[in-house]
């Protein structure tokens, strides 16, 4: 049931993710430059991928590496967005050892400086802000692509199941409307829904 609820949550978030993607793509990151053009730039995408693969000692000094180690040891999650990351660091400090608490406080101050620098950037994002948004846009693209692929695969052998999920969860139509559109009674609708969700669970978990 937990897996099915996770899939339902993914499907119902589809339109919200689409809206957020559109908003991100329209973000101004410089005079005449939109995030969409930067995120589509093959060279930038490759650079970003390579930077994320580098071991931290290649770009962090010894103190920054200690901060990174403390963060990995204490943070339970790594949310998207700098403000959300700041909140997670603040929350994690309460349960950290004295030594780690000091390092996390230093990380908190570094993140606050990034946010302060952005507030005075005349509406344009600083470098780290752009990277944050590119990361979020890439994650959204990945999730949307996974949902699209799963529904397309389902459509290949059970088109009614795929239509049911699109109408019920992505479009948010009521059960009665979807059953009527599919030409089935409520009992059949519920049986199809369970089978459709079970299939998509396999596709999205594979």
Report a brief summary of the structure:
With 206 residues, the chain is mostly helical.
Structure description:
It is a single chain. By secondary structure, the protein is mostly helical. It is 77% helix and 2% strand. The longest helix has 31 residues, at 127-157. It starts with a helix and ends with a helix.
Instruction: Name the quaternary structure.
Output: single chain
Largest sheet: 2 strands, antiparallel
Q: Report the average pLDDT across residues.
A: 80
| Strand segment tally | 2
CA-based shape: elongated
Number of helices: 11
- Can you list the strand order of the major beta sheet? 1-2
- The percent range for helix content is over 70%
SS-based structural class?
A: mainly alpha
Helices and strands, in N-to-C order?
A: HHEEHHHHHHHHH
Distance between the termini: 17 Å
- Cα-based radius of gyration, to the nearest Å: 22 Å
Quick tags:
206 residues, two-stranded antiparallel sheet, 2% strand, elongated
Layout of strands and helices, then pairs:
Blueprint: H1 2-12, H2 14-25, E1 28-30, E2 33-34, H3 35-39, H4 42-53, H5 62-74, H6 82-93, H7 98-119, H8 127-157, H9 159-170, H10 175-182, H11 186-205
Antiparallel strand pairs: 1-2
Helix pairs in contact: 1-11, 2-8, 5-7, 6-7, 8-9, 8-11, 9-10, 9-11
